[in-house]
């Protein structure tokens, strides 16, 4: 499987790696989509996963959907910058595409779970790590249930995991509470403007 995109231009100033994490249901995926829509100069790293596609998801755009055996082969080959298990499935960030984009001067943004974010912090200390928090645990539960994508058992697993993930927020460079979507998006844009390799908004 080929993860590396074609590159048409280059620059000498390295880009910045930005890691966006937080518990499931906190809204980080929606924030990511809005950022990318408004600021195409950001490079979004598409993750690989062993879970099944959800309605509307596109292979190669939403995720690279691969089998567990293929995923383990890529792990053994060192093809992932980080990888982790979440809710019974594996997720990983293809290494080559991320590092090449940074080398060519683009800011790369990753939306990943806690375990993967910790791996990035350990192996790539120059990354800027941002943790998205819910306004309350009850609100987080309401958001997860409102998606209508998971069974009660799966929701319980996600909520139990979220309790542990929220405890780790202080490990990250910046913590943002996603109470009001527009305000949170504005905070993220302000942070990105402060990154020297991030093009003018």
UniProtKB/TrEMBL annotation:
GO molecular function: ATP binding; GMP kinase activity
Residue span(s) of domain Guanylate kinase-like: 15-193
Family matches, as SUPFAM superfamilies: P-loop containing nucleoside triphosphate hydrolases (SSF52540)
InterPro entries listed in its UniProt record: GK/Ca_channel_bsu, Guanylate_kin-like_dom, Guanylate_kinase, Guanylate_kinase_CS, P-loop_NTPase
Keyword Kinase: yes
Localization annotation: Cytoplasm
SMART domains found in the cross-reference section: GuKc
Enzyme Commission number(s) of this protein: 2.7.4.8
Principal subcellular localization: cytoplasm
Signal sequence extent: none
Catalytic activity: GMP + ATP = GDP + ADP
Entry keyword set: ATP-binding, Cytoplasm, Kinase, Nucleotide-binding, Transferase
Residues bound to ATP: 22-29
Record's GO cellular component terms: cytosol
Main enzyme class: transferase
Function: Essential for recycling GMP and indirectly, cGMP.
Family: Belongs to the guanylate kinase family.
Protein name: Guanylate kinase
Gene (UniProt): gmk
